User: Fold these one by one.
Assistant:
Number 1:
Amino acid sequence: DAKTTQPNSMESNEEEPVHLPCNHSTISGTDYIHWYRQLPSQGPEYVIHGLTSNVNNRMASLAIAEDRKSSTLILHRATLRDAAVYYCIPDTSGTYKYIFGTGTRLKVLA
Amino acid sequence: DVKVTQSSRYLVKRTGEKVFLECVQDMDHENMFWYRQDPGLGLRLIYFSYDVKMKEKGDIPEGYSVSREKKERFSLILESASTNQTSMYLCASRQGHLNQPQHFGDGTRLSIL
């Protein structure tokens, strides 16, 4: 199973961009990278996913390194509601399993 | 938007009771999952179902069983509840194609006394 490494915590000021990194150096060539976030007392919420090229949606952008060993989730303007634990998860091809790591706890300062 | 609904947000049961946790999704998803989440241990997969009446054990199936009689509903059963099953339980669903994201419910916080 591909392993991920994320910083335990990060801080950002409100209205500023946030770049959340994830290292997944053991990922295979066909594994998508999925990002989720979890607010207190809620289930994980899907944010974005991608394979090779950069992806954008209404919530965030995902930048995937050319060698696919790392990716970065970009929140363009952090709000207080973005304070959560963010997980990056390789979606291992051929299995149904997600392996959740410990994620990055994002704190947004007003 | 996908809606995954878990029947209870909070539940308190006694040791030895048979406990049923229900999950319903409204997007005709083939795959459904049950996880538990504990501090310091993250989310761990208990069981999943890739289609109606089909099930596979996850990483920690001991003490649990599941039922999937209809596509939209996936039930988790604690056969004889024990205190070490006190946890947050999360249900998820997704389309049957690999690489599609899972969509989670808001969880059931279960306390076994």
Number 2:
Amino acid sequence: DIVMTQTPLSLSVTPGQSASISCKSSQSLLHSDGKTYLYWHLQKPGQSPQLLIYEVSSRFSGVPDRFSGSGSGTDFTLKISRVEAEDIGIYYCMQGIHPPPYTFGQGTKLEIK
Amino acid sequence: EVQLVESGGGLVQPGGSLRLSCAASGFTFTSYSMNWVRQAPGKGLEWVSYISTSSSTIYYADSVKGRFTISRDNAKNSLYLQMNSLRDEDTAVYYCVRNKGGAWGQGTLVTVSS
């Protein structure tokens, strides 16, 4: 199975500052169809996860442009510009290359200073 | 509005069975593959099972293979997970998830304990 490794596992950020989370996969997530199946999800406290970014860098419907994804192959980054209080929670990267199993990173907990 | 509503969770003894259901609305259910993902208390996310739009392709995590069965009824816009031979380590919130995570349900808690 593909192993997803996130760093750091926790992050404390001052409102208005930026934050970055790294995600590395044990195998390339570039599919033969030309797409790279790397996703970012956010689980806010007490809530279900929600999709933020799909296929490395595409923002899901309604996601603020403060969130951006980048990377290729096995190395990926989620950047949050101008962090706000509502951004707290646990961020998970996920590989969705077909066929399953799909796998998630360990999660990165974002707190506000 | 896209909605996924799970039901069927509860307390069950080791070795027992449960059937989870997920009612989908607000989108064309027949156009999306579906998944079950679980989260043990205080832990991260674990993919459990996948089913294609026509049910022709199904996958399971090794941890549940042979014990869990995923199915769907496109006429009822519903997804199911039949869970047999339950173990303590199956205790988790189970989420119904559309495709690669475009929508998540609120989850249903399954507790396996004697």
